[in-house]
Amino acid sequence: MNHLMIDLETMGNKPNAPIVSIGAVFFDPSTGELSADFYRVVSLKSSVDGGAIPDPDTIMWWMKQSEPARMAICDEDAISISAALIKLNTFILDNTDIDNVQVWGNGATFDNVILRASYERELVPCLWKFWNDRDVRTIVELGRSLGFNPRRDIPFEGDMHNALADARHQAKYVSAIWQKLIMAQQIN
């Protein structure tokens, strides 16, 4: 599989936001099949020490989230941001051809942008080609243009705002929209 859905949990919403967890899952949008997955909790301190800047409004937002969501980013086994990025690179290399991997994030200015900025700050190479970045929100809008929005109709499994659970959910609804778009194309 060469489609990789990534979800980040962060303490901000700008490119310099500190990452506190990374979730990723390979998927095939034409079938909806999910494959290998990745999850690491990242030390907030390591992200800030590397130059990321927390946002007070995002911190306040996190304080209002469910206890399971908050506890998931406070894992005692959290690793440094540089270690998490290296492990993510290894996960990608172990599971696909790096020249063909398409990396999906939720928003043209969020997951992939924050992740790339973290790679740059940590001096760890971001392995996939920038032209292989994909945006979940764009495909959701395309689905809506067809009168189809499975984003809310597909049951969420796991704890919301857990990076891996969010990545799995996003992969499922992107696949549903993808399949609907392909069917619409075949009809026309």
Which features would summarize this protein structure in a list?
188 residues; alpha/beta; 5-stranded mixed sheet; 44% helix; globular
Task: Describe the model.
- The chain has 188 residues and is α/β, with parallel strands linked by helices.
- The chain has 7 helices and 5 strands; from the N terminus they run E-E-E-H-H-H-H-E-H-E-H-H.
- The chain has a 5-stranded mixed beta sheet, sandwiched between helices.
- Helix 6 packs across helix 7.
- It starts with a strand and ends with a helix.
- The model has no long low-confidence stretch (mean pLDDT 94).
Secondary-structure blueprint:
Elements (H helix, E strand, L loop, with lengths): L2 E8 L8 E10 L4 E9 L2 H6 L6 H8 L3 H6 L8 H15 L6 E4 L5 H12 L10 E3 H10 L17 H25 L1
Parallel strand pairs: 1-4, 4-5
Antiparallel strand pairs: 1-2, 2-3
Helicity, in percent? 40-55%
Note the gap between the termini. Answer: 28 Å
Average pLDDT figure: 94
The parts where pLDDT drops under 50 for at least 5 residues are: none
Q: Count of helical segments?
A: 7
Q: Based on DSSP secondary structure assignment, what is the total number of beta strands? A: 5
Strand content: 15-25%
Q: Quickly give the structural class.
A: alpha/beta
Give a short account of the largest sheet.
5 strands, mixed
Computed over alpha carbons, the radius of gyration is: 16 Å
**Strand neighbour order, sheet with most strands:** 3-2-1-4-5
Instruction: Give the helices and strands as they follow along the chain.
Output: EEEHHHHEHEHH
Shape: globular
